[in-house]
Amino acid sequence: MKRAFWIVGFAFLAAGSVGLADRVINGHIHANYGSIVTWGLWVAAYIYFIGLSAGAFLVSSLVYVFNLRRFESIGRLALFTALVTLLLALLSIVFDIGHMGRAWHVMAYPNFKSPMAWMIWLYAVYFAILVAEIWWLLRRDFVRGAREPGWHGHIYRWLTLGSRDDSDAGQARDRRRVRVLATIGVPLAIMFHGGVGALFASVAARPHWHSGLFPILFLLSALVSGGALLAVVATIFQHGLKRNRDTVLALGQVVLALMLLDVLFEISEFLVAFRGGIPGEVAGLKLVISGPYWWVFWGWQTVIGTIIPILLLALPTRRDPRWVSLACLLIAAGLFGLRLNIVIPGLAVEEIRGLGQAVASMRVHAHYFPSVTEWLLTAGIVGLGLVVFGLGEMLLPHSDGEVGHVPVR
Q1: Which regions of the chain are under pLDDT 70?
Q2: Considering the domain boundaries, does residue 377 fall inside one?
């Protein structure tokens, strides 16, 4: 599985380099969004990766805030996953903006009346907390690894930042610091990802998004996707089929419970919208279930990403880590279809009916499908994430104490 992980990662990264070259040279010319559907695949990827990051971090909080030993074996992995997916999310949104070189302006010249400015500043604080937590967790391992000969020792000496204390008392202090940071990070993760949902929900001109459920739905799907991704990564990198199988099985049951709750909220949103009969809201949902890309909802999101995984996690297959990891992989993939069904149908309902037919322009139409450049660049972002995961597994020290504790029946 590790070999396949590396092959897919580098293949996607190579494909992404082609998309990146096109994006840098030609700007948005070869992207298929326009004056009506102004956001596309890259914005959907952004909110997807942000959800993965928030979900993985909140799973890590079970260990470092609430001291739940069942998931101690994946505590470090959860934080590293949160950091990598945060970087992928920020890359996705940077490629979407018109002037990538001005992305830093939101930090230098913020308008704190803007929810987007608040989110970017929250991301900065969240990034700092993630880096600090990971460093405090690995500090003693870095100090001990710095004594090793060869290139590993050189890397660890650089990562110690001058620290030389490898005592048990020093490690206890580190853990207390991690708990403080993780406690601060929990409301922060809830704020910034719930804030993404609130950003969509506050756009009154887009009835498909204008729902008080959106912040809750974003948080729920973040927990589902983050937990599912962790189960897959733990299977690949932490011997999830043998030594760490109990942790993978436990994660599968947590993901199942959260997934059922998420499905309940999704069904509630559809029932309330169709019962209320607000034209703009119903139009967006009709595009989701019966529009040109109905198969994204019925095939990708519902069958592959919901029904099959729920059956795998509820039937006796829940006791086999191979089936559990497959179910979690399908859930993580299916939730990307959900993100597409949030972003695109909400924009594809014309605010002025017939505008696309009234204006003769390639950019003024309500029909959107990602271009080759958009797909290639998104694949490259995913490939970068896979490669960084692989490098982290190679370079970061492993703790023999990180083992599963509670068996799952």
Answers
A1: 240, 356, 398-409
A2: no
Q: What tokens appear for 131 in the block? A: 């880096």
Number of domains in the chain: 1
Count of CB atoms situated within 10 Å of the CB of 23? 23
Query: Are 157 and 146 in contact, with CB atoms under 8 Å apart?
Result: yes
Distance CA 95, CA 19 (A): 11
**Residue 404 has what pLDDT?**
37
Give the domain range for residue 283. Answer: 32-370
CA dist 349 and 319 (Å) reads: 45
Judge whether 267 lies within some domain: yes
* Helix (H), strand (E) at residue 147: none
Q: How far is CA 381 from CA 45, 92, 141, 279, 344, in A?
A: 9, 7, 30, 37, 20
| 112 three-state secondary structure | coil
The answer to the question of residue 112 being in a domain is yes
Instruction: Return the pLDDT at 399.
Output: 54
The rounded distance, in Å, linking the Cα atoms of 78 and 57 is 6
Find the length of the chain.
409
Residue 353 pLDDT: 76
Tokens found for residue 40 = 């596309």
Residue 254 lies in a domain: yes
Q: Give the CATH number of the domain where residue 289 resides.
A: 1.20.1630.10
74: Cβ contacts below 8 Å, ≥ 6 apart: 59, 60, 63, 230, 234, 238, 244, 247, 251, 402
- pTM listed for this prediction: 0.90
